[in-house]
Write a structure and sequence with these properties.
This protein has 263 residues and is α/β, with parallel strands linked by helices. It contains eleven helices and twelve strands.
């Protein structure tokens, strides 16, 4: 295990890693940050880990040393100040992985015809995106498709996914209307979670494994142009004590309903 030590916050390497908190830098470098012992443990054996950044007070910990060895990556031990320059977690437990991003590229409906999928339309909060990935993985989905959403590799997304980002397939599409038409041509129903005169009611309507439910933006739901091309809309039945659910909560309810017959 190759190990080096850096103490200065202004060291070129430290500054470079710190910049990975920004989306533009992540895109340029093709790298992202994964923080925390449990989450880093989930990444081992699944992701391409380039570096392990270890706070110096963890350098002699047996369990941290074992995790570093399992990662197969170069280990950089950092002073408190240098580590704090990079961390995004106020309660960090002292370990960060620098991981290579996966580039899935544009996909076509025929490429995923046997997969169980859902889609996110303009979900902008990274915590919600990560939480939805976690729910999708929990309820047996193979892939989450996204357009106009928060960055998959935002540290908040990575953290909220609790390892699901490493285990479930994701695809970002640039032409959602065209992609929806592809899905429909391949025989799938695309169902927007939205209220309309003829909305299906979750729990009372026939769902199919081949469906692609579309989950919408936190404040505005699924965009009208997406609803217009979908085959149907769906609502979650609720009491009159509230008008809506948090986006991630609503997603969990819908994805559970799709998954419960298979689990």
């Amino acid at each position: 295990m190759n190990k080096t030590y850096i103490s200065s916050r202004t060291n070129e390497t430290i500054v470079s890693f710190s910049k990975l908190k920004d989306k533009k830098e992540r895109e340029i470098k093709g790298l992202y940050l994964c923080e925390g012992f449990k989450l880093c443990s989930e990444a081992v054996g699944i992701t391409d880990i380039k570096y392990v950044l270890l706070r110096e007070n963890k350098a002699d910990s047996e369990k941290y040393i074992k995790l570093c060895e399992k990662s197969g990556a170069d280990v950089i031990v950092l002073s408190e100040g240098a580590f704090d320059k990079i961390t995004t977690d106020k309660a960090s437990d002292g370990i960060i992985f620098v991981i290579k991003k996966e580039d899935s590229g544009e996909i076509k409906a025929d490429d995923i015809k046997n997969e169980k999928i859902c889609a996110l339309d303009s979900v902008r909060d990274p915590g919600n995106v990560g939480t939805i990935l976690r729910s999708a993985a929990a309820f047996g989905f193979d892939r989450v498709i996204l357009w106009d959403c928060a960055d998959l590799y935002n540290p908040k997304t990575v953290r909220a996914s609790m390892g699901a980002l490493f285990k479930i397939k994701t695809s970002v599409v640039s032409d959602p209307l065209g992609f929806i038409k592809q899905l429909q041509s391949s025989g799938r129903r695309v169902i927007a979670t939205a209220l309309s005169d003829n909305s299906m009611t979750l729990g009372k309507s026939k769902l199919m494994r081949s469906d692609c439910p579309v989950l919408g933006n936190e404040g505005h739901g699924v965009s009208p142009e997406i609803i217009d091309v979908c085959d149907a809309t769906m609502i979650i039945p609720m009491s009159d004590k509230t008008e809506s659910l948090n986006a991630a909560t609503a997603a969990a309810v819908i994805l559970w309903e799709y998954g419960r017959e298979e689990l």
